Amino acid sequence: MPKQTAELRLQLPFDQRSRSRLRTTLENGEEIGLFLERGSVLRGGDQLVCDDGRVVEIIAAPETVSTVRSPDPLLLLRAAYHLGNRHVALEIGVGWVRYQNDYVLDDMVRGLGLTVEVEQAPFEPEAGAYGAHSHDHGGQHAIIRGVARAGD
Length: 152
Fold this sequence. Notes:
Strand order of the largest sheet: 7-8-6-9
Helix content: 10-25%
Largest sheet: 4 strands, antiparallel
Distance between the termini: 33 Å
Structural class: alpha+beta
Number of helices: 3
Shape: elongated
Strand content: 35-45%
Mean pLDDT: 87
Order of helices and strands: EHEEEEEHEEHEE
């Protein structure tokens, strides 16, 4: 389904974007219930269609993350290996890796000779080799029901 113009926005951190059932509030103050297929993960830019036909754009909320940058790909690979060995969700970019902030993991990565920057940023980890999921929800994988409108 091609992208539509979204009338509504829903900003969520990663842990809420990976839940199949969620009661939450849109940016306009409207409370909604979100019902996704089990195992679905919403990504920033995904669009969902409400049961009344309105389109909602998902926004990846900034959250506290640890970002490791290095011009040395071997050092980054070592960090990714050790973090993956601990089943840590990782976002991987050119010259950096990112994970949800954890001081124990930060210390481990520093012990590998890397610098860790704790910052606020959207977190979009890899889906995983066995959990690859289409990013095009197109409203087909979700039901959004209005719970109550703010001020009603």
